[in-house]
């Protein structure tokens, strides 16, 4: 059954005034921090600043109210910039809204079917590769506004984008560059000083530099692009609620972009929630979190917003500011709403160069650049380096979807190769068992001519399709004409259908030669598939035993067989 229980319901019992005071203070702090980030991320994504703000308001409120984490803050994030920008360029804003709603339905289904824990199956090398790749793409996307280049429309494709940027270098605008560099230096300096100066920590760096740059621009009327000059400002009214225009002919083209948004949103939100758990000593509900993210991405486009997910930086700020329940995230959304309704006209003076500087700092802080150093890479295997660097390069040059797909394929192939390499088969020397047959009054393990009556092998690892060839090699290993072959499966943790098929083929080959196959010490999963497939019945209950001693005793009871007998008297 689908379980829908927001974390908010667990925190309300016993909620007191002291908790509300902490949530209120944190909500206000995160709300003012989210304002410049929401606008900056929206502009970098090819959307209007108002779209970013309403995404933060609607999605931020729903993620907090319905999510599976106590402290998660939802909204637009830098990771979505390259994805959203390409969708806007290739399909248009209306189709972006449809793709966002489709991704929301995908996230809702992932949570409902309890797939939240499966996101953790994505290897660290893939996550690090595409995270660094996204950071580079974000940085490249800000060159235009940072330098004030006169480019009417920046292509979404990497080579076209680089060609357009290089071709427009002669249009660099010195006042824009000066303001962008100054904003960058102030932001970096503020963030560093805030570590030691208590009062500076109360005012987030992005908001501080935004206020300073906006004030300077309003006083001196700098010749730079602003939100007012490019977008006409931010409406001081509630947006019109409605469904985006849909066309059945375009839905098929939007499945891939929607899946990309859903996967990245799931990864980032659950990663943010897991990081938050470590800081507040709690455990989030990944499936509830995905359902909340899904509902948020369905609702945000109704207000003109776009893709949203859990924001690691804002979530961490929420925790540091004292937020401990979803109420803080809901207050943060209400603070943004109040800012829009009261102070929207002031946004017209915000320079785009300053917003670009904020996004550049986000991109720099987002990347795990130490992971690309050779001193770090050399510590890991060649497979890890291949996956990480391959995912990174494909993310930068092509797109995130292809990068994740190829990264996962490479990771799967390398994993199968490694598992196959670890799977091995060893001959069990039976000399140490000689003599006990006299105790049981059984025939000797060896015949008078010295040939073996029984041969035994021990299997290690996983008998799956990637390692099936190891068992096939036994077909030529069972030399001579023993009465029985014993397979000790104590160290086998898994058998898949291909491994079972090879095992059945092995048994049929032995049976044609008049040799019995005895299995011993099966673990739970191998025993289950052997019994469910009917192979246990075909093999015979007496030929599936406990320990190897039992297998040897069973082999001693077998009468000598001739190949001709095997067709009419199967074991």
What do you see in this structure?
Helices cover 61% and strands 6% of the residues. It has 28 helices and 7 strands. The protein has helices spanning 7-11, 17-44, 49-66, 81-91, 93-112, 124-141, 143-147, 158-167, 174-193, 198-201, 205-220, 227-231, 248-280, 286-299, 312-320, 326-343, 352-366, 374-377, 382-397, 400-422, 436-439, 468-472, 474-477, 497-512, 524-532, 535-539, 548-557, 563-566, and strands spanning 74-75, 309-310, 424-427, 454-463, 484-495, 516-520, 544-545. The strands form 2 sheets. Strands 3-4-5-6-7 form a 5-stranded mixed sheet, sandwiched between helices. A two-stranded antiparallel ribbon has the order 1-2. Helix 24 (497-512) links the parallel strand 5 and strand 6 (516-520). The longest helix has 33 residues, at 248-280. The radius of gyration is 32 Å and the shape is elongated.
- Low-pLDDT sequence parts: 438-442, 560-571
Strand order of the largest sheet: 3-4-5-6-7
- Provide the β-strand percentage band: 5-15%
Determine Rg (CA atoms, Å): 32 Å
N/C terminus separation: 45 Å
Task: Give the oligomeric state.
Answer: single chain
Mean pLDDT: 87
Number of domain modules: 2
Key words describing this protein structure:
single chain; Transcription Regulator spoIIAA; two-stranded antiparallel ribbon; alpha/beta; 6% strand; 2 domains; 571 residues; disordered C terminus
């Amino acid at each position: 059954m689908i379980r829908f229980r927001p974390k908010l319901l667990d925190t309300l019992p016993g909620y007191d005034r002291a908790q509300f005071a902490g949530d209120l203070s944190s909500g206000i702090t995160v709300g003012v921090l989210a304002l410049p980030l929401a606008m900056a991320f929206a502009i970098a994504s090819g959307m209007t600043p108002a779209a970013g703000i309403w995404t933060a308001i609607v999605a931020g409120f729903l993620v907090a109210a319905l999510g599976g984490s106590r402290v998660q803050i939802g909204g637009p994030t830098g990771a979505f910039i390259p994805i959203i920008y390409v969708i806007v360029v290739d399909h248009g804003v209306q189709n972006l809204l449809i793709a966002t709603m489709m991704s929301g339905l995908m996230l809702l289904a992932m949570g409902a079917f309890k797939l939240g824990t499966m996101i953790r199956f994505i290897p660290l090398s893939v996550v690090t590769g595409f995270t660094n790749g996204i950071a580079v793409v974000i940085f490249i996307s800000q060159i235009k506004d940072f330098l004030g280049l006169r480019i009417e429309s920046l292509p979404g494709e990497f080579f076209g984008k680089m060609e357009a940027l290089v071709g427009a270098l002669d249009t660099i605008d010195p006042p824009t560059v000066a303001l962008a560099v100054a904003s960058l230096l102030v932001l970096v300096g503020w963030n560093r000083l805030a570590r030691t100066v208590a009062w500076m920590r109360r005012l987030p760096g992005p908001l501080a530099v935004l206020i300073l740059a906006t004030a300077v621009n309003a006083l001196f009327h700098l010749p730079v692009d602003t939100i007012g000059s490019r977008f006409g400002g931010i409406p001081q009214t509630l947006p019109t609620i409605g469904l985006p225009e849909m066309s059945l002919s375009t839905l098929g083209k939007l499945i891939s972009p929607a899946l990309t948004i859903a996967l990245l949103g799931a990864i980032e939100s659950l990663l943010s929630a897991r990081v938050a758990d470590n800081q507040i000593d709690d455990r989030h509900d990944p499936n509830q979190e995905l359902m909340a993210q899904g509902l948020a991405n369905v609702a945000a486009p109704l207000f003109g917003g776009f893709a949203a997910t859990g924001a690691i930086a804002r979530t961490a700020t929420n925790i540091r500011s004292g937020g401990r329940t979803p109420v803080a995230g809901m207050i943060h959304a209400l603070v943004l709403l109040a800012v829009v309704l009261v102070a929207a006209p002031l946004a017209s003076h915000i320079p785009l160069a300053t917003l670009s500087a904020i996004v550049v700092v986000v991109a720099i802080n987002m990347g795990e650049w130490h992971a690309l150093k050779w001193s770090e890479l050399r510590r890991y295997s060649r497979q890890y380096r291949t996956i990480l660097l391959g995912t990174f390069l494909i993310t930068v040059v092509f797109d995130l979807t292809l990068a994740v797909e190829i990264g996962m394929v490479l990771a799967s192939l390398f994993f199968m190769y490694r598992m196959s390499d670890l799977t091995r088969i060893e001959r069990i020397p039976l000399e140490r068992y000689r003599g006990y047959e006299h105790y049981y009054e059984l025939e000797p393990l060896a015949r008078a001519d010295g040939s073996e009556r029984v041969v035994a092998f021990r299997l290690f690892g996983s008998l799956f399709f990637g390692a099936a060839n190891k068992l096939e090699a036994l077909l030529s290993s069972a030399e001579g004409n023993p009465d029985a072959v014993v397979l000790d499966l104590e160290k086998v943790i898994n058998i898949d259908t291909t491994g079972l098929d090879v095992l059945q083929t092995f048994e049929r080959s032995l049976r044609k030669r008049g040799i019995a196959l005895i299995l011993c010490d099966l673990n739970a999963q191998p025993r289950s598939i052997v019994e469910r497939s009917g192979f246990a019945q075909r093999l015979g209950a007496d030929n599936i035993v406990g320990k190897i001693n039992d297998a040897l005793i069973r082999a001693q009871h077998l009468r000598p067989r001739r190949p001709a007998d095997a067709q009419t008297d199967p074991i």
